[in-house]
Design goal:
Elements lengths: L23 H8 L42 E3 L2 E3 L1 H12 L3 H23 L5 H18 L6 H7 L4 H21 L10 H14 L11 E7 L3 E6 H11 L2 H23 L6 H21 L9 H7 L4 H6 L1 H17 L5 H6 L1 H7 L3 E10 L12 H17 L4 H12 L10 E5 L1 H6 L14 E6 L3 E11 L4 H23 L2 E3 L2
Antiparallel strand pairs: 1-2, 1-9, 3-4, 5-6, 5-8, 7-8
Helix pairs in contact: 2-8, 3-6, 3-8, 9-13, 13-19, 16-17
Amino acid sequence: MAAPSPLLRPSAPPRAPWLGALACAALLACATPSLAVAPQGAAKPGAPRPAAKPPAPAPRAAPRAPRAPGDPIGTLDGRPLDAARFAEFVLSEQGKSGAGLEALDHLVQAQLVALEATRRGILVTERDLDERVAALDQQLKQSSDGKLSIADQLAAMSLDASAFRTLLRQSIACERMMGADYGLRSDAEIPREKQSLWFQELKGRYGVRTAELPAGAAAVLLEEGQGERVVSRVEWGLELFRALAPADSDRLFDEYVGIELLLGAAQQARLEVTPQHVAREVQERTKQLAAKLKAAGMAADDVDYLATLRARGDDPDAVLASDRFRAEILLKELARQRYGADGWKRYYADHKADFDREFGRRVRVSTIHLRADAKAGGPAGRTLAEATAALEGVKQRAQAGDVPVAEAFASFARLRSEHESAARGGDLGFLAAEELERAGLPSALLDEKLGALVGPLPTLSGAHLLRVTELRAASPFDEIVGEVEKAARRQLLQELRKAATVERKI
């Protein structure tokens, strides 16, 4: 049985149904490990080898017919969503990724095969396609005990049958040309390095370039006597989107819809992004970047958001002009208009219960901890009763001495505590109720008075003597105002989405 051609066996396993000509049949093969695509003229497949149970088709959407690059990719409140804008959005998000570069290479290879097949006069007939489809269908049924057919697999891939035949036609043509060039039998496997070399030679023959391109082009091929053949950025963006894993494509589509909703809402509110908005956003992002670097222990004195964009290979002007950047600014401005006129205080008051749950009461605690065992002779060298008695003595000395209790407690913690916090004077930081419970400490500490000495308290690892050093009220507005603003933005976007009618066609 011959191995699939390069059109059928991509350089890396696809992460999701790849609707390009370069991997379609390979996906069918991936569904059942025993399946291989037989080139034209190869012997019919015999009994299948033992195979793992094939996955059931995962219905995401009805199979789609081939889509012209200019067709809308959906509608938003009855308004068509432009394919070209969407493709540019996809490329801005994923174009430089491995999947993005692979998608462009697949489109270029498909064009190369089509041009070379025409030059050589390679003709794949409808009968050839019928025979290959029948062979694939038979192998799928055999390897799945009759549970899967090619129609099932195409439905799982959201691929229209006619589109599949178009891709298969190119695959068969590629098999024939490559086999002839390397003098291989029809059932011989083509080594991967030969596959790569064959396409590299074709790229040179047709002068493929992906730089210094005309507007709207992703790649250009030179067709002898016919001039340039262009792979458009729209084709590239849509091909890349279809190649993404379902969760990634769903997220990307949802983000695009959110951006369109924000741009529309801003237009209705007669709100525009000004140079002042852009400058303020750049300054804010620079501050955020500096804070992250400092938190990671890195120098942040000369950090600059725009310089960071350049360092990672992005064009700052393109980023600042992008729909995503503009929409993020507009979301902030729209939220300020709707909820933030009073500095977010009304929004905070209306949602205080939610903020209390997320930013609940906290207590700052210090500890003097002595390890102990339930019985004598254990590895700790003391029993729980002995540890408790020792800490009771420490407590009395801290309360009775001339030194302030806070200072005495910290000193005893450094000298006597066997907890990792000893070097910090026993400081455990601020703890919420659930964090207290995870540490084996009582949540009742939240109700203690400031400065209270609590314990000794027995735990599984020994005994604690605790001191309440600070109490923090639930969701203090001044400390979480940034989170309040973020919550308001999320609510605004959710309200826009809830009121919208979206139809997806891709």
